[in-house]
Design brief:
64 residues; 3 strands; globular; single chain; 39% helix; alpha+beta
Length: 64
């Protein structure tokens, strides 16, 4: 589970697009992590383009 206020800390969360740039993981990897219950997420949309926002700490745990 996310710590209190973790979603609001600068740099603590990232979008699926940023995760691909920084860690080389694709959207499907993130979705599998969400379905497995390893990643908490928020959905959003900017200018009609949907994105998934995840916690950096949890993503790093899933990767390595």
């Amino acid at each position: 589970m996310a710590e209190y206020g973790e979603w609001n800390r600068k740099g603590a969360s990232l979008s699926d697009v940023t995760a691909k740039k920084e860690y080389g993981v694709d959207r499907e990897f993130i979705i599998r992590g969400i379905n497995a219950g390893k990643l908490e997420f928020c959905e959003g949309s900017i200018y009609g383009n949907p994105y998934i926002k995840v916690l950096r700490r949890q993503l790093e745990e899933c990767i390595g």
